Each structure stands twice: as C-alpha cells, then as structure tokens.
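yo

u said u wanted the structure for the complex thing, so here. seqs first:
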Amino acid sequence: MPENQNFNPEDGLPIRSNRAGKVSKYKIEHYVAPLDETPLQAVDSVKETGKPLSMWAEAWRSLRKQPLFIISTIMIIAVIVVAAFPQLFTSIDPAGNQACLLENSNEPARPGHIMGFNLQGCDIYARTIYGTRASLLVGVFTTLIVVLLGGAIGALAGYYGGWIDTILARLGDIFFALPLILGAIIVMQLPAFRENRSVWTVIVTLAIFGWPQLARITRGAVIEARNADFVKASRALGLSKFSALLKHVIPNSLAPIIVVATVNLGVYIVAEATLSFLGVGLPPDVMSWGNDISSARTQLRNNPTMLMWPALFLSVTVLSFIMLGDAVRDALDPKARKGA
Amino acid sequence: MLSFTLKRISQLFPVFIGATLLVYFLVFATPGDPIAALSGGKPMSDATKAALTAQYNLDKPFWVQYGLYLKNLVTLDLGTSFSGQEVKEMLARAFPVTARLAILALVIEAVFGIILGVIAGMRKGKLFDSTVLVASLLVIAVPTFVLGFLLQYVVGVKLEWAKPTVSGAATWGELILPALVLGLVSLAYVLRLTRTSVIENKTADYVRTATAKGLSRNRVVTVHILRNSLIPVVTYLGADLGALMGGAIVTEGIFNVPGVGHLLYQAIQKGETPTVVAVVGVLVIVFVLANLIVDMLYALLDPRIRYA
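structre next:
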C-alpha cells in the first residue's frame, strides 16, 4: 500500500484522489486562523524593541569568551602600565646618578637586583622596565600615523577609482619596491634625521615605509564595501558621495584595517629594535629594548642575561599584539576561523 | 598571457624610475657634504675638493645627476667608490654570496615550511599542530637578530657544530646557519599559510572523490591536497625573495658574511652616496623583477587572474 494515501477517519477506507471532473463526496474543512490572533512576535523571536546586534557587538560577544583575547589583553594592559609608570615596578632609577656603578660590571643577580648587572654596572631589570616606554611609543605612534595616512590614501583610491587610484597605487608600488629596513636605514642616515635622532624620527621613518601596505588593504576593503547595496541605497536617498564614504563605506571596511594594524604594532616594535641594533635607530642615550639588546651583543659570551631579559620583554610584547590581532580577526570574520 | 605579460612589464618602468628617484632624492636633496665625509673630516684643498665634486657629478643640477645615474645604472656602469674600487666589481663579488644565502634561506623555508605545514594541517587540533603553531608564533615575535645571536651562540660557540662566523669565501656549508636565521621568520609564515590552505582543501569534494575511488592516503595528500594548497605559498615565497635581500643586512652583519647587505651597510656608514645609490638601484631591480616573476607564476597557476 502506498504510504502517502489518506484514510477516511469514519470508516478507515482509503480516499481516492480526486480526478478531474469528479467531485469528492467528503467535505474538507480547513481551519484558518484569524489574522489578529498570531502577532509577528510570536512567530519571529526577535524583539522589536531591541536593536539588532551590530558587527562590533557581535564580535565583542565572541571575543569576551576567547582565552587568546583575554590573555593578550591582560599582557598588553600590563605593558602599557609598565610604560606609563615604570617607577611602580622598580625602586631604582636607571637614569639617576647612583644607578650604574662600574664595580657592579657584569655582576650576576643578587637580592634587590633580580636580573643582575650589565657591562656598565647598571641594573638590567630597571633598564628593561624603563625601556618599555620608548619601544611602545614607537609601536603605537607609528601605527597611528600609518593607519591615518595609509587608511586615508587607500580609502580615496578605492572609493573614487579612476586616475586617483592609478596614481596612488603606483605611488604605493614605488615605496613597496624598497624593503622596510633598507628604506629606513637610508632615511635615518639623512643628515636631517641623523642629527635629530629621537623617538619621533624613528616613528616618522617607519611610517614613511609602512603606509603602502595599509593603503593596499584599505583600498581592497573599500572597493568591496563601496558596491554594497546599503551604500547605493544611501546615495539614492540623496547622501553626497563623500558623506557616504565617511558614514557607510569606511565604518564597514574597518575590520581588516584593525586586524593588520594590531599585528603591525608588534612588527614596528621589532623594526625599531632592528634599526637600533644596526646603530641607526634610537640615539644611544634613550633607554629602549633595541638599544639594550644591541649593547648586549659584545657581551654575549660573558653575560647572556644582558641579551635575554630585554629580548624576552620585547618578544612577549610583540607576541601579545600578534595574538590580539589573531583573536580580533577570528571574531570579526567567522569564515577565517575555519582555517586558522 | 602575452598581453598580461606586456601589461605587467609596462607597469614596471614607472615603479623602477620612481623608486630610484626616491632613493636618489632622499640621499641628495638633503643638506650634507659627501666630499667632506670622504676626507674623514680632515681639511682638504679647494682644488682637490672641486675635482672630486666634478668626478662624482656633484656639481651638476639634481636632474642631470639623476639622469646620468639612471643611464649608468642601465648600462651597468656603476662608477667607483670613494676608495677607488669599481662598484660593479664590489657588487660582482658580494652579489653571488647574498644570492647563495637567499637561495639557501628560500629552500630551507620552502621545504620545512611546507612539510611541517602539511603535517600540522592534516592533524589539525592534535598535539603536533598546537606545538608547531605556538613555535611559529614565537619565531615571528622574536626579532631576527636575537634569534641570530642565540643560534650563533648555541650552535656556533657552545656546541661547535658550525663556525660562528663566515670566511671570505662564504661557501654553501658555511652559509647554512646564517640562511636558517634569515629564513626562520618566513618559514613560520610559510608553515601557517600551508596549514590554513591544507585545512581548507582537505574537505573539498575532489579530495573525497580521490579517497573514495581508492587512492592511497599518500597520493591523496601529495597530489590532490598539496598541489591545490600551494598557490598562495608560491606567491608568498616569490615575494619573499626581495624581502630576503633586504633582511640580509642584519643576518650578514651578525655572521660577518661578505655580501650585498654588508657592502651596503658599510657604504652607508661611510656616507658613500654613489655606492649606496648604485647598490640600492640594483636591489630595486632585483625586487621588482622578483615581483614580476611572482605575478607571472600566479597567473600561470590561477587562470582567473590572467583574464580578470
């Protein structure tokens, strides 16, 4: 017996299907609910009063539960606190008069000086703590300049297209042809930079060669967002082209920019250390991890702790920014989570 | 394909001219006296100074200088350094060393990066995968020069498995340790890229088909998964060749390798502008050509790019 046959509830016999021209003797009653009895809320569980979650709220929800995000955020906050208030973490002022005594040169660790002393007899722990500020300043401000400059250029190129895009893309290619470290060495050797070496010249130099990468990423994201229906709708409703860029296109292309900028913050800290190591970065009197690692080079065989501690602090900081970037990417782009 | 090639080559010229102009402008448009640097700060007679200025074309207007430089670069007439050596000869000695170093680094990062990446990707979430992922993050976070010091100290000085510095001949064997340091960061990136790509591809329909028709696991992994996962990896490796040339400055400094980076760094320290500009010009050519080759490879591997 075919499964889909219906039975008459009165006598249990199968009902023959209606063929054309033959009217069934059974009357079928349909129950139709009155329209006002099932309000929309009952079917659709979304509350009409609450606003739907934005992309950022959604991302924040999933971020809060991620151990990677929690760990990296705690580490980054710790680094920021150390950079802002180094005196909270050590009673020794490494720039003070009595900070470095040559009699302590290369002395091992002892109570009160948990990491020992460097060649000049300075406390390694205090120097490492005070060196946080310069390294973090370079990372944060280079990232800020790169995001503002690269982001603006990339957004204009991607949004307006045409000849602006061509010129800006070629300009970026020109900077791309010079690797970051190579270009930075040349710029730092210019008399104007060499004679005013400071945290700020390093920041400007790294930003000069860092913006093209961010411009490329912003350009791609803006091109994707510019063709979205909500942008077209806002234009059709009379929003000017530039306002649509500011109000709709840029907020919707921020995700990849934030991810890349976070990871790059770590990259710039490493680049500063590399330049200082090559002798063209921060001036020697600025306390920074790069300078300390660089001066540890000659003492590697006598006193490896001189290299170890600043290198460890630097690596942990960079690692936290990379991990934060990874976590944010996963939260903003659930598709990528499948792979990474 | 031909029109794509021609289009890409035509795009090279503005980049090349722009990049060399940028370097030349940076080095020459700012105040500073390279001739004074030549004498090491000692006083010099006006006649000597004038002769030297003329010899290095420093008396001519900027655009004429740049034009002469470009003409010399194209004809490979790179001039002489302040110490009277031919820049072309110095480069001819140093370039093969850096090329060996970069090729070794590229081979190391490709072989180990792809193998480890495939294994990690096939065993996603297992102990091996997590270990390799954490290790790759650490390698990315530790600056190259710190890694270089550590390896030089541990492998070269403590264990004495390799010589801590490289001799003037810079043979392949001596360059293995520096090449490992140079390629280690890129190795971590290649590994992560391969792993992601393998994880994406291993659930693809054609992989299931291959397994279903009874192919051995080895064949499925090497032929079906690996081949299809290599496109982004190849792109990265090609683009990395140029970056390796730049990164060589640090590595060559640590291990005392007599390569291009070493030459460039010394020229910068001495303020030898003509040498710097000539060497950077050659590096830019290498970098731009490497990018061109990558683009062509990519277009060959993925026809969608060719016709876009």
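Residues 336-340 of chain A have pLDDT under 50 and may be disordered. DSSP finds 14 helices and no strands in chain A.
cya
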